[in-house]
Amino acid sequence: QVRLVESGGGLVQAGGSLRLSCTASGLTFDDYAMGWFRQAPGKEREGVACISWNGGNTYYSDSVKGRFTISRDNAKNTLYLQMNSLKPDDTAMYYCAADRAKWRYYSDNYSFPPADFPYWGQGTQVTVSS
Q: Do residues 102 and 53 touch, judged by C-beta distance below 8 A?
């Protein structure tokens, strides 16, 4: 049974930082590319960042590029999202997800299609106050 558990969310002031973690079990972690998504109340789920199985290929949405960094530690079966210069617009539930592919070519307009991600965590809340 695949299980993805996010942690590290919380309340932070604008301009602050948080690091999210996602620990995976029930799968061979380095067989999967991984992604982070977020969903704010009343808004559609949005892809934030993704990373190939070995960390060699990453992609970021325009809304977080230059502020967020995705990384992974395959020895610990853990995915990370370092979030810096946080803004109130970053307030959302953040989810990690496992891609069905090990490596994927991320075009300039990669849209994080849900069909690419069969496994999801339960989410961790991030709230950024102004």
A: yes
What's the average model confidence in pLDDT over 13-19? 98
> Between the CA of residue 36 and those of 24, 95, 124, what are the distances in Å?
13, 6, 11
Backbone angles phi, psi at 43, to 5 degrees: -120, 160
At 21-45, the pLDDT tens digits run: 999 999 999 999 999 999 999 999 9
| Strands (E) located in 84-129 | 92-98, 119-120, 124-129
**Are 86 and 16 within 8 A, CB to CB?**
yes
Above 90 in pLDDT, residue 114? no
Angle value at C-alpha 9, between 12 and 52, nearest 5 degrees: 120
